[in-house]
Amino acid sequence: MNERDDPLWHFVNNRLPGPPSARFFGWRCVEFDVERGTIAVEFAPPSECLNPAHGIAGGFIAQMLDATIGPGVAITLAPGQFPTTVEFKVCFLRPIRLGTVIGRARVVHRGEAMVFAEGELRDLEDRLLATATETLRIVTIPNVELDFGQGAA
Known about the structure:
3 helices, 6-stranded antiparallel β-sheet, alpha+beta, single chain, Thiol Ester Dehydrase, Chain A
């Protein structure tokens, strides 16, 4: 696939810092394959994500999974299309500590209007930490400029 010239494409190629939620987690794309519908990203969750037991709180884990799956689906869509979450299921397998977390996602099935995808988080020792499945609706958002950090400092 030829490289596109739009904010999403610049984001997954690490030329834009991404939306505020991605910047908060230190989101960085490691690799992606548009034809296969796969993506791998790194996160560096900050200490603000810690729960009282010094693990990353579940809501932040879910956000990292969504921030892996969403872009993995988005890169397979046409410019002007956007994936919106319809259903999202998370399985927490191990506590996640501060440090680098690797997210991987893949499109399992894509129809005309819906996509089913799955994702996982692993630590640097390749231990499986959490998994998710997500159903997303493909929508067209006319005349809306999506925030991928175009104006971020």
